[in-house]
Specification:
- Strand 3 and strand 4 form a beta hairpin.
- This protein is mainly beta.
- The mean pLDDT is 91.
- A three-stranded antiparallel sheet has the order 2-1-6, with helices on one face. A three-stranded antiparallel sheet has the order 3-4-5, with no helix packed on it.
- It is 12% helix and 38% strand.
- The chain is globular and about 25 Å long.
- It is built from one helix and six strands; from the N terminus they run H-E-E-E-E-E-E.
- It has a single domain, classed as SH3 type barrels, CATH 2.30.30.100.
Length: 69
């Protein structure tokens, strides 16, 4: 997935939680816009969940799911 496409989902106003689907079969939910950021190059997404910090290579995100409107 491109960083521009992912940014569109994450920077939506109003913000809606999204779920990222990764190649390992793992899913990561971003529930708050204050809990993620991109690195300067946009290649890596940093997501925090509690005390856990995840670094996600944006190119490996296979799909994004948003709640039905």
């Amino acid at each position: 997935m491109s960083s521009d496409t992912l940014r569109e989902h994450l920077n939506r106003a109003p913000f809606h939680p999204i779920t990222l689907f990764l190649p390992s079969g793992k899913t990561v939910t971003v529930g708050n816009p204050e809990l993620f950021m991109f690195t300067e190059t946009g290649r890596t997404l940093i997501v925090t969940q509690g005390e856990r910090v995840m670094l996600i290579d944006v190119a490996t995100v296979e799909a994004v799911e948003t709640p039905a409107e």
